[in-house]
Amino acid sequence: MDANTLCQLVDAKFEALSQLTELSEHQVATIDENRMSDLMRILSQKQKLIEQLLRITDQLMPALQDDPLTRVWESEDVRQQCRDRQQQCEQMHLQLLAIEAQCEATLQASRSDMEEQLGRLNSGQQAAAGYSRSQAYGQTNSSGSSSGARLDLSSN
Fold first, then answer.
1. Does pTM top 0.85 for this prediction?
2. Record's superkingdom (predicted)?
């Protein structure tokens, strides 16, 4: 692969990763604010960028087989800029992995909290239903204590 094509692909990769990073930062805020409909929109946008990134990565594959010493560069500065840009891409990729792990952990914690809240709500509903049933059957007096069935203890 010629050096100009390589630089163009690395720049395209950098741009896609930059956009993914920006969207991922919005994703974190959206999750923190529990805005799930916005999260779905962000994930949809990210999917398109991920597909674009995969296409770029496929296009870069032939450069992996090339001997870098045989690649002809316009100048040493251009080669260094391309190398620096590739290193920035690698750093962004690591940053994206960390953000995704953070998002996943936050969503799992949120899910666990919601399950706990639903469990408490369910227990409360069961207690209220049990209380309602006991009221309907006359098993609780006005003080709220259980008195059993009403017994006639008058003397005959």
1. no
2. Bacteria
